Amino acid sequence: MSEQPPAPPAPTGAPRPRPWRRLWRAASPRATRGQVLAGVLCAALGFGFAVQVRQTSTSGLADLRESDLVRILDDTTERGDRLAGEVQELEATRRELTEGSDQAEAAAQAAAARAREFGLLAGTLPARGPGIVATVTDPAASLRSTNFIQLVQELRDSGAEGIQVGRTRVVAQTAFTDAPAGSGGVLVDGVLERSPYVVTVIGDPPTLATALDIPGGVRETLRSAGADLDVQQAPGEDGVTITALHAVSAPQYARPAPPQQ
Hints:
Blueprint: H1 19-27, H2 33-58, H3 66-99, H4 103-122, E1 127-129, E2 131-137, H5 145-157, E3 162-165, E4 168-170, E5 176-178, E6 185-188, E7 191-194, E8 197-202, H6 205-212, H7 218-224, E9 228-234, E10 240-242
Antiparallel strand pairs: 1-10, 2-8, 2-9, 3-4, 3-8, 5-6, 6-7
Helix pairs in contact: 3-4
């Protein structure tokens, strides 16, 4: 009697997956709810950052009002006209020095005029001319030196030719520092100035006044600090007078360089 071969096992359900397919499933990442939520948040954050960068790059003059744009345009035009006038004066002086019949006299006059200009810029001579008087009132004594640095920088950018803060003449070397606690003021070249701060400025009155009223500029910064700014324009040659003088000290390290051969 011959032995019968074993019968094949009966099917028990779905076919078993192939080995490579089981390996693929085991290696595939399984996303949890936390991972999906983190991915969605990262995508939203990236989209918001991109929109903010685009808005920042396109903001600026486009966000200003028409009246503000007109003020900026007038200020720029005024600066261009002033620079063009200075160029014409320098060219006329050069022609007098090179083509005039009395070159020695012309050179002496030009040197005297230049000395007066340097005296005004250096603060060693009193000055008079059209300008503004800006009064800064700080009842809580909350202003710091940075507020006055911003104020002076804005005035200089607007073509100010002479500035006096309280009793102190402001020149290129002027230092604004915070006064000791309880002093209730700001040190200008070591001189303590307190509220109300009277800032006398020589320059084109409308241009100077407009510069202090630019949106987001000096006036708004002072107001946010609890101070108030009042600007009075004084047109005409006898508009304002700057009497404070700057004491020039002898240079300690600088020496005239020898002429180049």
